[in-house]
Amino acid sequence: MSGKDKAMIDKKAxxxxxxxxxxxxxxxxxxxxxxxxxxxxxxxxxxIALQLSLTLxxxxxxxxxxxxxxxxxxxxxQGRVKSKVRNVVIVTVDSGxxxxxxxxxxxxxxxxxxxxxxxxxxxxxxxxISIKSINKNQESVQLGEGINV
Length: 149
Prior knowledge:
With 149 residues, this protein is α+β, with helices and mostly antiparallel strands.
């Protein structure tokens, strides 16, 4: 993949991940402040433990999203569309396993069942970056770009 293609993909997919990262950081900060205030006010230990566990739960998305944004390592998967319901597409890959992907609603109209597709997504968050329809002649036609987190 050329640098121009990567930049174009990042332009579409990156803003949503950045928003989710900001929101996760905000929640982590909020829970951390609550833990500090509860500790200072001598609140019950079970309440402090609950707030601390919520803080740790919010740290996981921060780490995962940060790794996807920093490393920019994408996975490209080819398979056949098995079914589509609402904004979820089930793709059967070469190994016979079914994989579920969610897309923006406007991209769903371009996807039809029993057609070969190439899906590019983030490795950790499984956020869909793009989907391409693959013709029998191995020529690719770009259907659209989107993201799912």
